Amino acid sequence: MLFSRMLIPTLKETPAEAEAISHQLLLRAGMIRKVTSGIYNYLPLGKRVLAKVERIVREEMDRAGAQEVLMPAVQPAELWQESGRWGVYGKELLRFLDRHERDYCFGPTHEEVVTDLVRREVHSYRQLPLNLYQIQTKFRDEIRPRFGLIRSREFIMKDAYSFHKGEAGAEACYQDMYDAYNRIFKRCGLNFKVVEADSGPIGGSFSHEFMVLADTGEDLLASCNACAYAANLEKAEVPLDLQEPGPPAGDKELMATPGVRTVEEVAAFLKVNSKDIVKTLIYETERGPVAILIRGDHEVNEVKVKNLLGVTDLALAGLIRVQELTGAEAGFAGPVGLEIPIYADQAVVRMNAMVTGANHDNHHLLRVHPQRDFKISRMADLRAATAQDPCPRCGGELTILRGIEVGHIFKLGHKYSKALKAVYLDQEGAEQYIYMGCYGIGVSRIVAAAIEQGHDDHGIIFPMALAPVQVALIPISLNDAAVRDCVFKLHEELETAGIEVLLDDRDERPGVKFKDCDLLGVPLRVVIGAKTLAQGQAEVKERRAQAPEFVSLAGLPEFLRQRISAQIGASK
RNA sequence: CGGGGCGUAGCGCAGCCUGGCAGCGCGCCUGCUUUGGGAGCAGGAAGCCGGCGGUUCGAAUCCGCCCGCCCCGACCA
User: Fold this and answer.
1) Residue A269 belongs to what domain range?
2) Using one digit for the tens of pLDDT, what is the confidence trace for A492-523?
3) Does residue A532 reach within 7 angstroms of strand B, measured from its CB?
4) Is residue A189 domain-shared with residue A267, that is, in the same domain?
5) Which among A245, A249, A259, A250 has a CA at the least distance from the CA of A364?
6) Does residue A408 sit in the same domain as residue A372?
7) C1’ B43 / CA A512, Å
8) What is the predicted pLDDT for the residue at A49?
9) A314 is near strand B: CB distance < 7 Å
């Protein structure tokens, strides 16, 4: 591979639009270019990295017994209407009409299509189990695409769907996928953590997400320092520790708090601790408005609220609506006298003298008692876990980490097989619904995640398994005939040996080539200069290393081959 | 969708307040010199100043509408 012939448009300066480090470096390294918001071109080197990820995914999926298929990007509305998701998926589903004015969408996921395929072709228990996967372009019309390849609208995803006779087989398959995913991310050289995830309205007893640890991650996760427990913060339980409140600490009292709305303001104004204050959050749901009570120093976990209420739509009520429901401006809502259902976090229930809004402009109530002064419809764990909470498994200490979700596996059960009537006949000739599971990997997101994890001031540091090329070959001066002959000969020799090598044959000064080589993240750099060449040596430097090593030219291909396989093998 | 910011050469930006030749750095092209960490000199190409409308003798600059992009938030199988 000759640098001068490749489209590798590196940039010295960071384009203004890029915020995330992976986005900046992908642009600067000439691996991607934006076409429009959340939609990118992959240039030759970017495509090579993608291909590396895809290859690892294919090898491990095949090894786990899955079969590769390719489903269409464009899907007919009928299937989505049949599953019921045409009406509920929302604007993230890109819909359009064909020339006959028939409804279509660009697939954000493929449960409908794959279930349709299987229901047409699979009729007997003898044909099960089946695990079908594809690596394909998805489109989700994200409200706000951001961070380059981390949250794009069009992206490459590996999605797999398993079909089993029953739950037992599906769970074994789930475990196989769990293991395959661990191997995939390990081979990709990623530092990741598997966390318990919310399985959402789909249900199912469990779900796991694979998180690449990075400070720029959009997801928060709670991880136990003592045991193996780790969960998405959306899912992380706060151990239930129900206690009765103490007796009332005195009559409740109406206190004027002019213009004092937030927990911080109330705490400062009344000189109380935020732990003594209760926030009353008014939410709208498809089943009507509710009030959620959360202690002042805690944050509500909306996923837990949704699961408790069994609703899919949950949004903070607008200012006007809050006024209608509480009779006061936002900031002064409280549970006393509220007419809508009240759900309280467990921490609230044991408070015997809480400060709450008074449902009266510019007033709060002191010494409110949960049993004496208002009625709680239900009480539960409704708040986000914090680093101060104990591990729900072992009581150990939790750490809150940030992560980028690169994989998600969950059981679907009969949701789609029932909706689309995907059935088989069992040994007794009885019709049974097929038991499904689904397993996703964000292939293009892995590329970004690897860069978020592997970079320094000079550029990308790719793990060997993902690098666009394994070796960069840099001549100090192509005008020196000996050097020139040597690098072209080496280039051929290395390619013959099956080593991916990029010869920087550009008419540039060495400094430019070093800068670009670092920027691209090529793991091994071979420099040929007149002096070392005269000694029959090449200079080899690992991207991560400070100092170079000197290797005899004769032994160079073997030396590189060993380095490469050691590094790919190490992450295998 | 709410809040904020930005659209001027391929990239990074100045000019706009106070209307009057469209600029700077990098990149690109030609030539010479140079060759171990983003070279030097000389010459050159490249712009509907996001779009539409208005004000004005005259608009990148002032006014209105629209479009696009980025950030924060809400949202997210």
Assistant:
1) 253-380
2) 999 999 999 999 999 999 999 999 999 999 99
3) yes
4) no
5) A259
6) no
7) 24
8) 97
9) yes
In a domain, A160, yes or no: yes
- Inside any domain, residue A192: yes
CA A520 to C1' B49 (Å) is: 34
How large a percentage of chain A has pLDDT more than 90?
A: 70
Between the CA of A307 and the C1' of B36, what is the distance in angstroms? Answer: 63
Give distance CA A153 / C1' B8 (Å). Answer: 29
Structure tokens at A371: 């049993």
Determine if strand B comes within 7 Å of the CB of A14: yes
User: The tokens 């006393």 sit on which residue?
Assistant: A336
CA–C1' span, A467 to B19, in Å?
54
Cα separation, A40 vs A60, in Å, equals 27
| Number of residues that make up chain A | 572
Query: Which nucleotide lies nearest residue A200, CA to C1'?
Result: B77
**Residue A248: is the preceding peptide bond cis (ω within 30°)?**
no
**pLDDT tens-digit map of A135-146:** 999 999 888 888
The verdict on A278 and A372 lying in the same domain is yes
User: Which nucleotides of strand B come closer than 7 angstroms to any CB of the protein?
Assistant: 1, 6, 11-13, 25-27, 34-39, 68-77
SS (H, E, C) A49-102: HHHHHHHHHHHHHHHCCCEECCCCCEEEHHHHHHHCHHHHCHHHCEEEECCCCC
